[in-house]
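Q: How do we represent a protein-ligand complex in a form that can be generated token by token?
A: Start from the inputs.
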Amino acid sequence: MKLLTKNILGIIFSLLALALLFSAFYTGQEKIQTLSLDQLATKINSGEVSKIAVMGNDLNIDLKNNQKAVSKKEAESGLSETLKNYGVDPNALQKVSLEIQEQSGWKYWLGILIPVLLPIILIGVFFWMTFRQAKSGMSQAFTFGRANIKLFSSFKNKITFADVAGLKEAKQELMEVVDFLKNPKKYLEIGAKIPKGVLLLGSPGTGKTLLARAVAGEAEVPFFHISASEFVEMFVGVGAARTRDAFANVKRAAPAILFIDEIDAVGRERGAGLGGGHDEREQTLNQILVEMDGFDNETSVIVLAATNRPDVLDQALLRPGRFDRRVILDLPDINDREAILKIHSRNKPLSPTVVLRQIAVRTPGFSGADLENLMNEAAILTARKGEKEIIQTSLYESIEKVLLGPERRSRVLNQKEKEITAYHEAGHALIAASLKNTDPVHKVSVVARGHAGGYTLKLPSEDVHLKTKTQFLSDLAVMLGGFSAEEIMFKDVSTGASNDLQTASELARRLVTKFGMSEKLGPITFGKTQELIFLGREIATEKNYSEKVATQIDEEVKKFIERAYTAAKKIITSRKNVLEAIAKKLMTEETIEREEFDKLIKGFRLKPLTI
Ligand code: ADP
Ligand code: MG
Ligand code: ZN
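Then emit the structure tokens for the protein with magnesium ion bound:
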């Protein structure tokens, strides 16, 4: 960009200079009239011309009335001959003084040279600029094979296992690696094979990068960090070269740790069809394997690689001698969450009344990164309110912010929309409060948040690892509560329920095809899914059942939804007064917290129902 503006400026300046030059030539000659040869002949005959100066083919004519004129003669013939041809009387011509001037001087040469040289110079400058650009581009191209590897070996703010909360098993596994890096001799003497690669598996934000750095910190060795996607970015044919370069760098610094982040970017199962059979990826992957195989037992370099997609990894990566060790990083449980919160509140002023345990209780499913984010949001909120210490309510508020995105008070609902949203959310909340097997309602609100128009926040009272069919059915009924409430109260439904319906349909399908919870189809799973439970995410499903079974699955899914829908409608119809009470309160107060909600519900003495 800078170069371009420079070029354009240069061109503009040279054009300006040229214009000046030319105007210097021609000023002063502008009022001089130009005569054609026969006009000149007539003037000579009538005796109006006193002098003609010949300069090359140019004729500078002085007229008797002290005016000047210019003309041109024919190139091949002399002046007198030309004039004769135009019928000039020789006698008249004799009265005119003729003067032949030397064709010289810078003006003359410039006049000849500029028209010739100018285009050549311009073209030359143009080529020169293009070449210069191409050259700088080329020297960039030569660095493409170099790995963009980052070295963190500053021991000043090094990270150790003390900075990583929880993850006990993972730390234990990695202690071995640390020990090896510290005293390789001990292992080599016994003839033990040293681990070359360790794969860290875990959802985003569970602390894979953090843990890898902690290993380096504990072992006090340099830590090299590269993202696998950087190996292959942009240009074809450099992935392998970069890999070689990266490994060479690390080997020079051995003992050291090379951390390859997001290794699934290159380590995908070859020919799996996901993301296309990318040749470049394969070559990079092969190069990584070659490099790892090339470590002799003395090379104390350990490769740590992180991924949240272990299911797509190429088997070749997992073979002995490569990434044969796997360390799983789970989402933190309540104790770990408390510990993580404590770590991230180290440099923040917490009010003495804050109970971090209470925050941990309310954040099941949060990753380490979420919790860090939560603490940060709380600090921001505190600063914005102009307070000096973080208090408990700011932390609570931040939980919701991390969960749902910021409140959008600016999105104004009109009265009708507000009413519909209030009844919709009241529907969810009422079903959740009525059924036995649901999570308690933490908060109901008609204030828009993120994409949701309103929301009902239910949170499990403890970490759950198993869920029963009854609980799922109750969840389905709660999801359909909003839709049912709208339908019963307004005899009409809105688009506000579409997200609920989608979540419900997906859940119902999982019940049938994954959890074997359909009575008709029995305890079979359908569809071969490449999924790891701890990631809780579906990657790709291969259909391994017939069309007939597909129809049955659809029927069973529908049955689950219908059962939940009927239950929801029944509860709402029979407890309309409660629904109205909740909705009215929502319309006036917009948000109901758990304590208030419990109090409101208690007043009706509802009997817990089952589905
Ligand atoms: P990943 O690489 O698994 O996506 P990171 O290691 O980048 O996750 O974690 C992101 C941030 O979350 C870390 O910088 C750290 O501050 C925080 N974090 C995650 N897990 C923990 C943990 N167990 N203890 C302390 N902080 C954690
Ligand atoms: Mg990471
Ligand atoms: Zn809803």
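Residues 106-142 form the longest helix (37 residues). The two ends are 67 Å apart (CA to CA).
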